[in-house]
Task: inverse folding
C-alpha cells in the first residue's frame, strides 16, 4: 500500500507540474486538504490498482504482481533457536489487496493504513538451521508457502527537507505490523533430500507454525518495511512537495 500511495501522489504531482500534458484516465488528483485527503487517496489507489499490478515504467515502478523480496535474514535465540534466510522470494497475490482504512495527517506528515491481502503465495530459496521441539533441523533448497487473510498495519512518517530553495518530502520511517490468519509452508531439500524425513519435518513445522511465525515475523516485517521505504524515497526524491500535493 505504501507503493500505491506514493505512486498516486507522484502521478498527481507530475500532472500538476505539467510533465503530463493530458491527465491519464486512472488518475484522481488529491489536494492538500485535510477534510478530503483520506477518501481521495483511497479512491486514487483503487483507480490506479491495475497500473500498480502491471508496473509504471515512466516512474521506474516495478509491478506489484508479483512482488519480489531479494533477501530475508532471521537470527534468533528466542522461542525457537533459529538461523534462516530466504532469497529471491516471489510474492504473488499482493495486487488483490483491500484497503480497510487510510488516515493522512497533513500537519504531522504521517500516514496510518490498514490493508488486507486475502491470499498470498510465496516461492523462493531458503537456508535453515533451527530446531523443532528437540529435533535439529538443517537444510537448503526451494520453499513454497501459502498464506490467507494477511493484514498489515502501516505507519509511515515523513518530513520536509530543503534542497535548492525548494521543499521536498522525505520518508523518515516505516513500521509494518503483519498479522497472518493461517499459512502452510513446504521446504524441499531437508536432510539432504531424504523424502521421508523431509515430509515428516514439514508436517512438524506446520503443526508448530504459530511459534515458527512468531520467530520469523519481526524479520519479515523489517525487511518489507526497508524495501518499501527505500523505494518510496527514491520515487519522491526529485519531486517538489508542492507538486506532490498541490495546495487547495
Result:
Amino acid at each position: 500500500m505504501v507503493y500505491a500511495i506514493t505512486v498516486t501522489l507522484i502521478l498527481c504531482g507530475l500532472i500538476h507540474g505539467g510533465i503530463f500534458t493530458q491527465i491519464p484516465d486512472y488518475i484522481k488528483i488529491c489536494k492538500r486538504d485535510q477534510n478530503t485527503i483520506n477518501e481521495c487517496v483511497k479512491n486514487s489507489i483503487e483507480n490506479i490498482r491495475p497500473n500498480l499490478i502491471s508496473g509504471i515504467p515512466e516512474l521506474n515502478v516495478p509491478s506489484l504482481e508479483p512482488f519480489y523480496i531479494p533477501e530475508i535474514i532471521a537470527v534468533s535465540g528466542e522461542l525457537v533457536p533459529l538461523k534462516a534466510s530466504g532469497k529471491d522470494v516471489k510474492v504473488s497475490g499482493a495486487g488483490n489487496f483491500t484497503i480497510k482504512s487510510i488516515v493522512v495527517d497533513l500537519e504531522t506528515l504521517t500516514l496510518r493504513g490498514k490493508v488486507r491481502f486475502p491470499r498470498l503465495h510465496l516461492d523462493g530459496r531458503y537456508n535453515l538451521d533451527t530446531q523443532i521441539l528437540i529435533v535439529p533441523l538443517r537444510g537448503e533448497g526451494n520453499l513454497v508457502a501459502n498464506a490467507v487473510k494477511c493484514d498489515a498495519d502501516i505507519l509511515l512518517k515523513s518530513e520536509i527537507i530543503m534542497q535548492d530553495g525548494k521543499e521536498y518530502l522525505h520518508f523518515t520511517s516505516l513500521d509494518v505490523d503483519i498479522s497472518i490468519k493461517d499459512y502452510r509452508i513446504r521446504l524441499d531439500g531437508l536432510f539432504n533430500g531424504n523424502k521421508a524425513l523431509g515430509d515428516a519435518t514439514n508436517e512438524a513445522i506446520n503443526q508448530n507454525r504459530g511459534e515458527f511465525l512468531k520467530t520469523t515475523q519481526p524479520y519479515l516485517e523489517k525487511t518489507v518495511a526497508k524495501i518499501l521505504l527505500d523505494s518510496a524515497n527514491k520515487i519522491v526524491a526529485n519531486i517538489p512537495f508542492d507538486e506532490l500535493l498541490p495546495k487547495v
In short: The CA atoms of residues 75 and 197 lie 24 Å apart. The first helix runs from residue 2 to 16. The chain is about 30% helix and 40% strand. Confidence is low (pLDDT under 50) at residues 13-23.
